[in-house]
Design a protein that fits this description.
Elements: E1 4-10, E2 14-19, E3 26-27, E4 41-42, H1 52-64, E5 71-74, H2 86-97, E6 103-107, H3 115-121, E7 126-129, H4 136-143, H5 151-164, E8 168-174, H6 183-196, E9 200-204, H7 219-229, E10 233-235, H8 251-261, H9 266-273, H10 277-289, E11 294-298, E12 301-305
Parallel strand pairs: 2-5, 3-4, 5-6, 6-7, 7-8, 8-9, 9-10
Antiparallel strand pairs: 1-2, 11-12
């Protein structure tokens, strides 16, 4: 299986070349909103998963095709900080790319309390950590962490990361109606965020299919919460329609690589892969008929996935 996917359109990062360094789905959380699905291996144990020779070859092959890339992003189908010596992989990435692209790590914040993890993350240019609750009760309800992870450890880790990390930190909050979108919770977020002092706060919504049926906060509620938190707030928006990529993989292979990491609509795939809608639609029908992917309706939209 490839260590890379994309570049894919990101609401936050433009065109992002994804790096997947842990097997699906190895994670320290089992978040109720995770687009990748239910965690199959919930663990805090860190391993060195990547074959370095294969990693180097794949990245060099991708760069030869000269795709449009805004960020190289460590994320994928599990928690990237569960990869031991993540700094080594980031350094190799920067060496091969000659640091032409900024490196981002998207993390659920579960292991930031560990000094070794924070030290390894210093190699990144941008870190997007999550904070989905302002109370211990909601932390366990939303994130469903592995044994040994506490709400206090997550907060302490985020504060320590800000103290030590010299790059940018964009704190992400996934807002879920009737769970963490109350005025009380927003005031709690404000107090915690002031201690962390990230460069900005991103309010995100679980708009893709999730393991648990969830409701989205209204636009009015989002506006109220943003005013209460009163920080450098950004609400994640849709990827710009005119930005497309060109990549010379077989179209069906591109679709499968994309869907292994996240469910998508036809329009998501069209914009990501830079292909015409008719061609993508034809390939999707073929892949569904051969049972390589599945299709289903979610919030009135047709989604495709590999699960």
């Amino acid at each position: 299986m490839s260590y890379f996917y994309g570049p894919v359109p990101s609401r936050r990062l433009g065109l992002s070349l994804g790096v997947d360094v842990v097997p699906a789905k190895v994670c320290s959380f089992d978040c109720i909103y995770c687009q990748v699905g239910v965690t199959t291996t919930k663990s805090l144990r860190r391993f060195f998963y990547v074959d370095l020779d294969k990693f180097r070859k794949e990245l060099k092959d991708i760069l030869r095709k000269q795709p449009k890339i805004d960020y190289i992003t460590f994320s994928g189908s599990g928690e990237p900080t569960l990869h031991k010596n993540l700094d080594k992989i980031i350094r190799i990435t920067k060496e091969i790319t000659q640091s032409r692209y900024p490196v981002c790590v998207i993390t659920n914040s579960s292991l930031l309390y560990r000094k070794d993890v924070r030290r390894e993350l210093k190699q990144a240019d941008l870190i997007i950590p999550s904070l989905d609750a302002a109370s211990s009760k909601n932390f366990y309800k939303i994130n469903r962490p592995a044994a040994g992870i506490t709400f206090k450890k997550v907060i302490d880790g985020l504060i320590a990361l800000r103290r030590e990390f010299k790059g940018k930190i964009w704190l992400e909050i996934m807002l879920i109606a009737n769970i963490n979108d109350s005025v009380k919770e927003a005031k709690g977020f404000k107090r915690i965020i002031e201690k962390i002092a990230p460069d900005k706060v991103q309010l995100n919504l679980p708009v893709r299919p999730t393991p648990v049926k969830l409701k989205l906060p209204t636009k009015g509620k989002l506006s109220i919460l943003a005013k209460i938190i009163d920080f450098n707030i950004e609400v994640a928006e849709s990827f710009h329609k005119n930005r497309q990529r060109r990549f010379s993989l077989d179209a069906k292979e591109q679709i499968i690589r994309y869907l292994r990491r996240r469910p998508a609509t036809l329009d998501d795939l069209r914009r990501s892969l830079g292909l015409d809608a008719a061609g993508v639609n034809k390939d999707l029908r073929s892949l569904v008929q051969s049972k390589k992917i599945k299709q289903y309706l979610y919030r009135g939209k047709k989604y495709f996935c590999c699960r």
